[in-house]
Write a structure and sequence with these properties.
The complex is a heterodimer. Chain A has 17 helices and 19 strands. Chain A is α/β, with parallel strands linked by helices. In chain A, the strands form 5 sheets. Chain A has a 5-stranded parallel β-sheet, sandwiched between helices. In chain A, strands 17-16-15-18-19 form a 5-stranded parallel β-sheet. A 4-stranded parallel β-sheet of chain A has the order 11-10-9-12. In chain A, helix 6 links the parallel strand 9 and strand 10. The relative contact order of chain A is 0.13. The model of chain A has no long low-confidence stretch (mean pLDDT about 95). By secondary structure, chain B is an alpha/beta fold. Chain B has 8 helices and 7 strands, in the order E-H-H-E-H-E-H-E-H-E-E-E-H-H-H. In chain B, strand 5 and strand 6 form a beta hairpin. Chain B is globular, with a radius of gyration of 20 Å.
Chain lengths: ~475, ~210
């Protein structure tokens, strides 16, 4: 049993009572909602004649279905318009703040919460979206929930939940050129497996994590769920506080910053905290990681060979065989040179300013390959605006990328941005499941934003470090 | 239904014939592709369960257990490891439930998926991989054969034998005691919830509504 970790402390501070099931009733400090998983919950509330208990602790945005090209209303697609209208009505009725596209604050729910200072250390944060783990980057206890649980949170401000074990993942050393937070988390999932985190919360620690900015920490916490862990977090530190100080909430309420800081410090894991498991990773050894298969755990370093299914543990063989057939890759090959039709730079994993900056640095002065359709979808309207001001939009457009409005877009193909037929996509998103990007024959290769940029230029998966070397010569 | 009292049935057992869905890491995008989630209710999701594995481009049937006549009345799905991994979409268990599934037996389940099943009163019971494969083989050979899941005793009975399975402790209690729908239960603690909100340093007094009349 873990003791003295951030997880234990935040849990204890939010535990209301133990329920007859043995689960704890946890107070929810921030409930984020969006258009896909909340309408049914509001419907259940109406059926039961219940109201939203804590509207002031609830915040809405629209991200999954929002078009990233033409956003004029009504949306071209009826279903999207219906979902948007339903959300508008629900938040208006309940008095919930809504970062809608006319506000300039709209974006992917896991991008806007941190931007606005809604996401804070020591909060419990839930959302009907599995990538809610992202907010753990700030030392919050954040996890995804289903629609019936959204109903519970709306109606009561609390959630029935079972306490989990804590695994500390210590990443020491320095990340090399072309290697990013994304590669760290892909490596973790590859080593521990897509189900390795079931029953655990991941605490990311070590010098390589401490050296990361908030965006990198968010990329890592974001994909905790791909490793089976429902939540992941990083202890808050000066990097966290610097970010928070710049957000709307603390700009508007500067006194709150000093008032809350002792709380944030108090919930950090103790030096002598006890963990249920500890795993160490050497950051110096990492290279850019790409996936060869159809689960996020099927990754390899860009110079490594695709494994033969027979060499894998027995329970992985069948999945690997099917994945290799779908992706049309052969054991013994590397992913370097895998032909790409589409590149997608976006998603709650990698669509923040530093992600776009690093990709733009690779793109600048180069051209997108003739056979590639290349998309950049900023994570939020604020990222979009900042990137436009900084000239990144021009860099991308001059190179032949399409520059879009903010949303989830081709990460999950719920709007018009979808793969067609058996197109292969180099993607900075988080899931390479069959059908994920909108076409059941589509092929997704997950990688970091610089690698996506490199793939757009080369028309194939390529080692970004080769490109940068050429550039420096 | 009106009023916030909802009748929550006790689920101490589930039974019916089985349907085997083989493969590890079957994700929620396979169970219900995202394009079918552009809806504001869960009604009618059943026909889209496993859609891309059941139908080709021309909507012609592909080879899949859910397309087989012999499994049409099945209500117990037998799956392998990490079933339901991926997104938090409750649309996944909702689609299975609306197709006719009342219970799942598998090697392991992704956490959010299992939690979503529980919120619908659907047991997700587990056993080791060998046991699961034997059961899947038996279901193939006995598509009409009855499988009985005793949630309370943590056993599964089929083909004249009873095997031990595992039911997560909180899940077992919630199902057996009929407290798997937690809304009313948690709402009854509203006073304590308020107190907790007042204690938390980051929750402002103006964010805590006045107690209901």
């Amino acid at each position: 049993m873990s003791e003295g970790t951030l997880y234990d402390k935040v849990w204890d501070r939010h535990k209301v009572t133990e329920l007859p099931t043995g689960q704890d009733q946890l107070f929810v400090g921030l409930h984020l909602i969006h258009e896909v998983t909340s309408p049914q919950a509001f419907g259940m509330l109406r059926e039961r004649d219940l109201e939203v208990a804590y509207p002031e602790l609830t915040h809405a945005t629209v991200d999954h279905i929002v078009p990233t090209a033409d956003q004029s209303r009504p949306y071209e697609e009826d279903a999207a318009e219906e979902m948007m209208s339903e959300l508008e009505e629900n938040v208006r009725e309940a008095g919930i703040d809504f970062s809608d596209p006319t506000s300039g604050d709209q974006g992917i729910v896991h991008v806007i919460g941190p931007e606005q200072g809604l996401t804070q250390p020591g909060k419990t944060i839930v959302c009907g979206d599995s990538h809610t783990s992202t907010h753990g980057a700030f030392g919050a206890l954040a996890f995804g929930i289903g629609t019936s649980q959204i109903r519970d949170v709306l109606a009561t401000g609390t959630l029935a939940f079972e306490k989990q074990k804590v695994r500390k993942i210590e990443v020491d050393g320095e990340l090399g050129e072309g290697v990013e937070a994304k590669d760290v988390i892909l490596e973790i999932i590859r080593r521990l497996g897509t189900e390795g985190g079931v029953g655990y919360v991941y605490e990311y620690a070590g010098s390589a994590i401490e050296d990361l900015g908030m965006e990198g920490r968010m990329s890592i916490c974001n994909m905790s769920i791909e490793g089976g862990a429902r939540a992941g977090y990083v202890n808050p530190d000066e990097t966290t506080y610097e970010w928070l100080e710049e957000t709307d909430y603390f700009q508007e309420n500067p006194e709150k910053f000093d008032e809350l800081k002792p709380y944030w410090e108090s919930i950090r894991s103790d030096d002598d905290a006890a963990y249920d498991d500890v795993v160490t990773i050497d950051a110096d050894e990492l290279e850019p990681v790409v996936t060869w298969g159809t689960t996020p755990g099927q990754g390899i370093g860009i110079t490594e060979e695709i494994p033969a299914p027979d060499e894998l543990p027995e329970d992985k063989r069948d999945t690997a065989r099917r994945a290799q057939e779908h992706m049309r890759v052969e054991p013994g090959e590397t992913m370097d040179g895998y032909e790409i039709d589409v590149t997608f730079l976006g998603s709650c994993t990698n669509a923040r300013m530093p992600d776009l900056r690093r990709a733009a640095a690779i793109v600048e002065g180069r051209q997108v390959h003739d056979d590639v359709r290349a998309l950049v979808v900023p994570g939020s309207q604020r990222v979009q605006e900042a990137a436009e001001e900084e000239g990144l939009k021009d860099v991308f457009e001059e190179a032949g990328f399409e520059w879009r409005n903010a949303g989830c877009s081709m990460c999950l193909g719920m709007n018009e941005d979808q793969l067609e037929g058996d197109e292969a996509c180099a993607s900075s998103s988080n899931r390479n499941f069959v059908g994920r990007q909108g076409s059941k024959d589509g092929r997704t290769v997950l990688m970091n934003p610089q690698m996506v940029a490199a793939a757009a230029i080369a028309g194939e998966v390529t080692d970004v470090r080769d490109l940068t070397e050429v550039q420096t010569v | 239904m009106s009023g916030n009292e909802v009748d929550i049935p006790e689920v101490d057992s589930a039974s019916g014939s089985g349907i085997p869905i083989r493969g590890n890491d079957i994700d929620t995008d396979q169970i219900i592709p995202a394009r079918f989630m552009k809806v504001v209710t869960f009604d009618g999701l059943g026909e889209f369960a496993f859609f891309d594995l059941r139908f080709d481009e021309n909507d012609d049937l592909k080879e899949h257990p859910m397309n087989e006549e012999r499994f049409q009345d099945s209500s117990v799905m037998v799956v392998n490891s990490n079933f339901g991994c991926g997104s938090s979409r409750e649309h996944a268990p909702q689609a299975l439930m609306r197709w006719g599934i009342d219970a799942l037996i598998g090697e392991s389940f992704a956490e959010i998926f299992a939690g979503n099943c529980l919120a619908l009163g659907i047991p997700t019971v587990t056993a080791d991989s060998e046991t699961i494969e034997e059961l899947q083989d038996w279901v193939e050979a006995n598509p009409d054969g009855e499988i009985e899941i005793d949630v309370e005793a943590e056993t599964v009975t089929y083909g004249g034998q009873t095997i031990d399975v595992t039911v997560d402790e909180a899940q077992r209690k919630a199902l057996v005691e009929g407290v798997w729908d937690t809304t009313a239960l948690m709402k009854s603690n509203a006073g304590e919830v308020r107190k907790k909100a007042q204690e938390l340093p980051y929750v402002g007094d103006d964010q805590i509504p006045d107690p209901a009349d």
